[in-house]
Write a structure and sequence with these properties.
Strand content: 25-35%
Number of helices: 11
Oligomer: single chain
CATH class of the largest domain: Alpha Beta
Radius of gyration: 21 Å
CATH topology of the largest domain: Nucleotidyltransferase, domain 5
Structural class: alpha+beta
Length: 346
Amino acid sequence: MPSVIAPVLRTLSKELAIDLGTANTLVYRRGEGLVCNEPSVVAIRQSNDGERRILAIGADAKRMLGRVPSAISVIRPIRDGVISDFEATQMMLRHFIQKAGGTRTLKRPRLVVCVPSGSTSIEKRAVAESAKSVGAGEVHLVDQAIAAAIGAGMPVTEPAGSMMVDIGGGTTEIAVISLGGLVYSRSVRIAGDRFDEAIIQLLRRRYNIQIGERTAEIVKIMLGSADRDAAVETLEIKARHLAAREPKIVRITSADIREALASPLAQLIDAIRLALEQTPPEIAGDIVENGIVVAGGGALLRDLAAFMSSQTSLRVSISNDPLKAVVNGASKLLEESVLLAKVSLN
């Protein structure tokens, strides 16, 4: 299918750093800071002849989740860190870049775009082509975990091992970094979306109710915790009762949500332990000394650092501003051309 995207960037001397995430897309403009932070969501109307028309992108589209007629689809074109809808991703990226540029004229800017470490060459090419299709000039792809480590202020260029665990919406990036390179990296599909799905499934089994993604996310934020011994809290939610086939108000507890999160959290710990097992001994010693740093939206889960520390016997800390660690690291790379050349994937 030929691209429907006309180049929109004409005369910009500015440069952009983009965290193209499963849950949110953040755009930083050099010299001005963060200029866009919106959900990676697109609302599409498809006609009978197959033509697709974008109705809304970002926050406007997310507000439509679960509230649209059958002719309209509200999708996340990036699922589990992978572009699942190339055309919608192009549209979304075009919209966010336009928003980052405001009404100024733009000139084929240099972009730094962050991608999961587990991305295949095809997936990386799809990201680069999406960026170029909307008028970008030079496009550098950078591993999300390295960008997050740089954004968190970790000593990634030093001859010492650092471990970053970046828990995003679709994937968790687990990386051991030394001298600006990846000693070990793995992208696992156990992250915010998996937490939400576990909550949906438990409430369905226990209370025979169905909730959507937005409600699951709210429940996770309000009641979620990695500490299974935390005080019990309650929350009333609106849901569809599957037997009665009608809406109901149901009272759920934080104990329910902790139980739902127990399995994906255990899988996440297993992935971290595997990374530690496969790390060379000298670098593993550095991690014992320096600990693990956690970034991403999943880092905001209550009591996560204490839980991870108890399971790994290592010091675990949450990065400053974990939601922006990746884009902050990418923005620093715009300022440091030598380091960018070293960590660029292309």
